[in-house]
Design brief:
The complex is a heterodimer of chains A (120) and B (368). With 120 residues, chain A is mainly alpha-helical. Chain A has 5 helices and no strands. Chain A is elongated, with a radius of gyration of 15 Å. Classes of the chains: A mainly alpha (120), B mainly alpha (368).
Chain lengths: 120, 368
């Protein structure tokens, strides 16, 4: 009996593609990752996100919850990578320090709210 | 600020077919061999674990004892040593999910203290998943189901509404519907049979509209029992006729045994005592095969009562004697200790204290 659902994978991929621009700009503009690092982040995030959508098969997450989770994971990724690069030092960019001081989940909710306003 | 490096994981994803085959292979292996060959079967692959969890979920209603052992084994495999699993919250998710599965299986097997322990084990990891609200709501459902089985009617009716609303807010309509079953059990226990029947009919219709056929069939199964309790043979038989083929196809052996129990109740209510005994025994055999000892024991008491009605005192005694050790072992009815003692005493005197017998089996849920 198959347990991997192509339909759910397709839906999750669609959500990922719709948010890919926001994720990239968050990683590059907010967390100041390089484009190559952002590529790597997207590569890691996609399979994780497809698995997230398949969790607890009979109780799938709602699309909005999936979006928030993806944004949150992206912010977590960007933050932890940038902090690792800084090696515990403060950055010379106060905007980056400000972003790094915020919880990733908090920033993700802000991003989601902005998306909600923009989407029809 | 906490620093932390994001570790990269091997990028090669397993193709879906390989995942399915590996999950089947892992679960068919002896448990010890799974750990010994963990590297070969890539047991730490999150895709694979996801598929294994889905399989365990599917088998909960047909092989709870096996599922419990499998879930425990995999939980321990992930827990010690603390293996890195996937990305972000995946290790926490799998620990929580496997504990939840093990606890649910224990609940089916009436191993209630153990179920509570597993649910406690699930809570910690679930607090750290990105889907924490949904995961913890599913955990709350299992805890409430345990209360329903312990006949905590008021608590269930009080807590069901906020839980259902939580699932609705999370856009988890199937889980919201499942909460209705707990309310139905509580209403049945409280003697509010009409309300319970109305609720199950509504659940059945909504489940069908959502394509949740397992729930729709389970609602029909519970209606079989309710109509049976009301002595409405025609509707009980019709409900069972609709439920059984679906449950057989889904291999939902627990629900099938419960339908059989419901039909037996209907036969008893309509005065067909001998046929009722046969039907209860059929249900009992099905519970036995699944390893649901508590239900087997409860049915022994019901059967004993009916055997007394037929004047078969010796057979009734035998039936009670088979039930008592299980009741004691599983500590099934702490509130029915007095009745249990009376019954035991009467058996020593080679007779059955029927009021004590009835009081004791009154402590088991009427609703299967």
């Amino acid at each position: 009996m198959p347990h991997t659902s192509p339909a759910r994978d397709d839906e999750a991929r669609e959500v990922f593609l719709r948010l890919q621009g926001v994720i990239r700009s968050t990683l590059v503009s907010y967390y100041l990752l390089t484009p190559e690092e952002a590529d790597g982040a997207e590569e890691d995030l996609l399979p994780w996100f497809l698995r997230l959508a398949r969790r607890s098969g009979n109780s799938p997450m709602a699309p909005k919850a999936l979006r928030v989770a993806l944004l949150s994971a992206a912010c977590q990724y960007g933050r932890s990578l940038q902090m690792w690069k800084l090696g515990g030092r403060r950055s010379t960019d106060p905007r980056l320090d400000d972003i790094l001081s915020r919880e990733p989940e908090e920033l993700a909710v802000d991003l989601q709210m902005r998306l909600d306003e923009e989407l029809p | 600020m906490n620093g932390g490096r994001v570790l990269r994981f091997p990028p090669r994803a397993m193709p879906p077919e390989e995942i399915e085959n590996s999950a089947d292979r892992i679960l068919s292996m002896p448990r010890e061999a799974r750990v010994e060959g963990a590297d070969a079967v890539r047991l730490e692959q999150p895709d694979l674990l996801l598929s294994v969890c889905a399989r365990l979920h599917d088998r909960l209603d047909s092989e709870p004892a096996e599922v419990r052992d499998d879930a425990e084994h995999l939980y321990e495999f992930l827990r010690v040593p603390a293996r890195p699993i996937g990305l972000f919250d995946e290790r926490e998710y799998f620990l929580g999910e496997l504990a939840l599965i093990a606890g649910t299986a224990c609940r089916h097997l009436s191993r209630r203290d153990e179920a509570r322990l597993w649910f406690d084990r699930a809570e910690g990891p679930f607090l750290h998943t990105v889907s924490a609200t949904a995961d913890l709501s599913r955990l709350t459902y299992q805890r409430l189901a345990l209360r329903a089985e312990e006949r905590q009617v008021d608590a269930v009716l009080e807590m069901a509404t906020p839980l259902r609303e939580s699932f609705e807010k999370l856009s988890m309509p199937v889980d919201a519907l499942k909460v209705g079953f707990l309310e139905g059990v509580a209403l049945t226990e409280g003697g509010r049979l009409q309300e319970a029947a109305e609720l199950y009919r509504r659940i059945g219709a909504q489940a069908e509209s959502l394509g949740a056929e397992r729930l729709a069939a389970a609602a029909l199964g519970n209606l079989t029992h309710l109509y049976g309790m009301q002595g409405d043979a025609a509707r009980a038989i019709e409900a069972s006729r609709q439920a059984i083929p679906v449950l057989k196809r889904l291999d939902d052996r627990i629900a099938l045994a419960k339908v059989q129990w419901g039909l037996a109740g209907m036969l008893r209510e309509t005065g067909q005592v001998a046929a009722a005994i046969e039907s209860y025994r059929a249900a009992q055999e099905q519970f036995e095969q699944i390893g649901m000892r508590a239900d087997v024991a409860a049915l022994h008491l019901v059967i004993a009562d009916l055997l007394l009605e037929l004047g078969e005192e010796a057979a009734a005694r035998q039936s009670v004697l088979e039930a008592l050790p299980v009741i004691q072992d599983l500590q099934m009815v702490p509130e029915g200790m007095a009745a249990l003692q009376l019954l035991r005493q009467s058996l020593r005197e080679e007779r059955i204290d029927r009021p004590a017998l009835r009081e004791l089996h009154g402590f088991f849920p009427d609703s299967p």
